[in-house]
Design goal:
This is Carboxylic ester hydrolase. GO terms for molecular function: carboxylic ester hydrolase activity. InterPro entries: AB_hydrolase_fold (IPR029058), AChE-related_enzymes (IPR050654), CarbesteraseB (IPR002018), Carboxylesterase_B_AS (IPR019826), Carboxylesterase_B_CS (IPR019819). It is an enzyme of class 3 (hydrolase). Its EC number is 3.1.1.-. With 657 residues, the protein is an alpha/beta fold. The protein folds into two domains: 394 residues, Alpha/Beta hydrolase fold, catalytic domain (Rossmann fold); 224 residues, Rossmann fold, CATH 3.40.50.1820. The chain is built from 18 helices and 16 strands. The strands form three sheets. It has an eleven-stranded mixed sheet with strand order 3-4-8-10-9-11-12-13-14-15-16, sandwiched between helices. The chain has a three-stranded mixed sheet with strand order 1-2-5, with no helix packed on it. α14 crosses α17. The radius of gyration is 24 Å and the shape is globular. The termini are far apart.
Amino acid sequence: MQLPRSLALALSLWGLALGAVATTASPLATRQAPAAAADDPTTTVSSLNCAPKDGCTNLGNSLDPLDPAAIANDPVVRLRNGSYAGVRLETVDAQATLSRFGIKHGAQDLFLGMPFAQQPTGDRRFRRPQRLAANHTWQGVRSAKSYSPACYTVGIDNDFAPPFVTYRAGEDCLTVNVVRPASASASDANKGKLPVFVWIYGGGFNMGSSADQRYNGSFLVDQSVGMGKPIIFVSLNYRTGALGFPVGDVADRERITNLGLYDQRVALHWIRDNIPAFGGDPDAITIAGESAGGASMLFHNTAYRGRDDGLFSRTIAQSSYYATQPRSQFYTDQLNGFWTNYTQAAGCARDDLDCLRRLPLGDLAKVSLSPAYSFPAALWNPQVDGELVAKDLQRSFLDGDFVKGKPIILHNNINEGLSFGVRGVNTSQQIIDAIIDKNGLGGDDRFTKAAQMALLEAYPDEEGLWPPYQAGDGLLSLSGRQDRRSCAIFGDLRMVAPRREVAELLSSPQSGAGNVYVSRFDQAQYNATIDGVAQHFAEVCYVFRNPLATQNALGPARRDIDLADEMAGYWISFVTTGDPNAVKGRQGADGGGGAAAATRPQWPRYDAGGKKHLRFKNSPTGERTEVVKDSYRPEGIRMLNEVRAGTWKPKSKREEL
């Protein structure tokens, strides 16, 4: 069946909005669509939330590239430096797809790939980002209809590879993207500016892209309009890997550590300065991110010893962690050694940054990916620089060096450790050796023999106590017989312990912080490789209400869609008001808030005494989202935080009695 031209136009454009990375004004297919059956008109349009094994394609990718001549009435925005023309996405009737996802609540405007800084190429490589000068202006209207290249990365994950998405990588990458309801504009000043949701991607500070279709903002914006509380979605790129996080004494001396965090900071300045032109409120900006993006949220809350630069009003930190490199002589020597290997492999002296700046990007790419030089992913990470990262991240929170009076959501998943546990663990000593090898507790002298024994007691060798997944006997030779124990320890060490400690510190009456809300995600994804697991990153497709065919796709079951509506509704309410409970949304599918919007549990504020948090769940057995106490594995989690901070002491004989 031939699609009506108006629908084909909208769908083709929407494919661009939903993350299919474009190199021109039109989205390019990342895989071939199945042939349309004569009696099945829907097969020419993606189902939007079916499994890849069913032969489905992403909405938009199944259509021919858009004829540029068909684009009319491009939205234009006038910014401080000049004007940009974006793309208008018309509504898409949900009935045109097999799912109920569509753009149902009005058209959207996309402005993609807009530079927020001078691009870090040539002599600006390995330097802090430089903001666009006030006199850097242009005449006419520039195109903002396609994503920029992703910042060059040393690695790639499965969801970035075909058939899920294909994208370019380079150094001309410091750009932002804006998705807004088409009704929003600078002329809406008398109606009130819209709140802004800024997303910063994760990837271990080693990879990532704002063009990644998993971070599509169109679904979220559409639901916000349906709830009667429209928001503007913004995403940004920042440098990662060796180009974004150089390490060692040379980087310290030349003040080039943490370049990716400085990129983010400059982007936040650009957003605050320019968002009014898009119809956004510069005084209602929520910054959000997951994993390394979540850790970035903690860095921005503690930047410059907690100085408030007015760049954001609220924070959402999903799976955040203490990401600063340990400051020990042993670890510093390691960093210097890796930096020397990196520069020598590039043919440069270790302190000759000019040599590194002259090299073609391809030469540096070969070094980063060379099997002769094994650079661990955790190498290229933030370091204390005395400025933006004034102290170790944990120490900043312990000392009260964070912005005050701003509400925050802190979130983690129940099985975070499945992504971080050490595989092949069969003995207690192997677990201890892995912690030491990873420098996971921050110093040479903190993880003493006494601490090691106490940790093993806090996490006993009883597999039934740990996260409720089972790899099966056939995988035991690979996973190890203490795999679940390892995953519990490393998940707590990496994600849960920092989240709980930050929640306790910020929620104390003396902290001066804003309201704190804590949540946990327990829902197993429909296409999880191991049954019963809500591992790292699993919640992202629910927060974004994103059914696109990636490994993090939202499942087709009604329970998954309802849970996505629920989570996105809480997030939108928080972005709008600073309180996840304030906006319930309209009941029913047409309202975008989900059928159970009016009966969602009241999400309590977290306090150090009650420690109540929201557990997200919607299972076939009847388990639903509910308020529970944040009290699991208390002794082990407390100990991990104390050892890292250097405050842990063995129990006295009296305490043991």
